[in-house]
Input
Amino acid sequence: AQTVTQSQPEMSVQEAETVTLSCTYDTSENNYYLFWYKQPPSRQMILVIRQEAYKQQNATENRFSVNFQKAAKSFSLKISDSQLGDTAMYFCAFMKLGATDKLIFGTGTRLQVFP
Amino acid sequence: DVKVTQSSRYLVKRTGEKVFLECVQDMDHENMFWYRQDPGLGLRLIYFSYDVKMKEKGDIPEGYSVSREKKERFSLILESASTNQTSMYLCASSLLIGQGYGYTFGSGTRLTVV
Output
């Protein structure tokens, strides 16, 4: 069975600085997707970034980028130029490519951005 | 934009009551999911459905059932609510199986069982 581990329950960063959230996963699969979701205080989960395992290039979405290390089974999220609106819970998630679209989530990292 | 709408944002029910949590999506997504979210545990899958009238158990189905009579609607049923079912419940949908699109989520229902 696949598992996703987020070892940082809470993190904080000052506005305009850079922060990296860690995620590791365990799987014997070769084809899969990895995701980072953001859940602000409004509770609406929002997809931040998505990575296909067969792509070596790290995904980037504006200020958000990932460091995908397939051999190490690591998928960290880097937020550059942090903004107050980045304050949220961040969840890392794994999806096996196959017959279902089940997402397996980590336990989340609460990020606080300070002015 | 796809919308996933959960009918209640907050719900308080008594122990032993039958509880219905409703979820509707408006963009013809094939797959729908129910998760519960608890602090320190992340999101755990309760049930999912990849077609009308089809359902599959997730990781924690005990004490729950689901219904999907129409493609756009996926209901979670607590047959006899218990205090350990106090939680945040999140509904989600995705377009097609095997495409890795990820989910669109509803805003969640915070259920308190007293």
Summary: The two ends of chain B are 37 Å apart (CA to CA).
